Target: PD-(D/E)XK nuclease superfamily protein
Amino acid sequence: MDSSIDEVAAQPGGADRTPPATPSRPPSPPMPAPTEPPAGDGSGTAPGPASGTAEHDGRAAPVPAAGGEDDAPGTAPASGTTETGCPGTAGLAAGGAAVTGTAVTGTGQDSGSGTGGGRGGPPTSLSPSRASDFMQCPLLYRFRVIDRLPEKPSAAATRGTLVHAVLERLFDAPAGERTAPRAKALIPGQWDRLRETRPEVTELFADDPDGERLAGWLAEAERLVERWFTLEDPTRLEPAERELFVEAELESGLRLRGIIDRVDVAPTGEVRIVDYKTGKAPRPEYAEGALFQMKFYALVVWRLKRVVPRRLQLVYLGSGDVLTYDPVPADLERVERRLHALWEAIRQATETGDWRPRPTKLCGWCDHRAHCPEFGGTPPPYPLPVGPAGSSGTG
Ligand code: SF4
Model:
């Protein structure tokens, strides 16, 4: 197998961030840069698959638990990061392409609402999390995007945010100092920062006066951080971007946006998109769902840079798995068609006010059951004008 993509580690001192403007996958010459260990050497990174095929290391794992981070359809509510500022770091700039790439220092949940700003606005863009919401349950999408109903922070999602922040900040250190003890030492400071920026997370431990639950929660964050070192070697990585906010407008006018945990760019220009998950890897039959978010990002990067990312990599810290996928243009075109269909469905629901509940076992983790007709609740008054097609009554 071609192992070069496992070596998409940018050189210290700056990699070539301007890959050739080609929509096809570049060849895979050996990388001259310092690299990650080759596939199959015990690094935990499975050998790369053949073009256009998903690969899973075969370890069975349950669907991510409640509050887990998987944005994919069919999983628990998403968490992630929020673009909370720090503008000015341009990323993934491509010649001639309209680029919005901003490194963010977010520690909050991905609002990803795609609303025009303000409560009650119609959706104007799509993020992977919100696309997954609509696929899971249109009414859930409405509650989150249009009504913007508040949600309680969850311990698992908040821990995911904390771990993401630690992994991001670790790359501030010189390569040789990116050790597990150093990473673990970042946890208290990042937890303090998270409490400052999102005071509501302190509610999680309001009923924990002796700090026992908090200590266990932080210990689990340490374990997740430690496990990362069994999967990747940060002393041999120099990310081109971390926590990168990307946004692209498709020809149809649909705006896609999201935050990519890490972008590695090899000296050859090959791009690897990396996402950390603090939950467990999905079973192989759910891998496609897990990859939806990554293909979404790959489509955005393709549209911005005019180059198809060479590899998509999901790093599951909860189970110690790495799921990789090497996309081809046809994959991303399929995702684009799917997103257009989704957006049309969202547009129709927005106009008609017909946001149907779609109950599944995931309802158990939904914060909005009190407003959901499936659970005897009543949605708040629909805040948008309803078109001539009328409403089905959920709004
Ligand atoms: S509780 Fe209702 S709104 Fe929430 S996911 Fe289930 S069906 Fe959708």
Observations:
- Confidence is low (pLDDT under 50) at residues 7-118, 390-395.
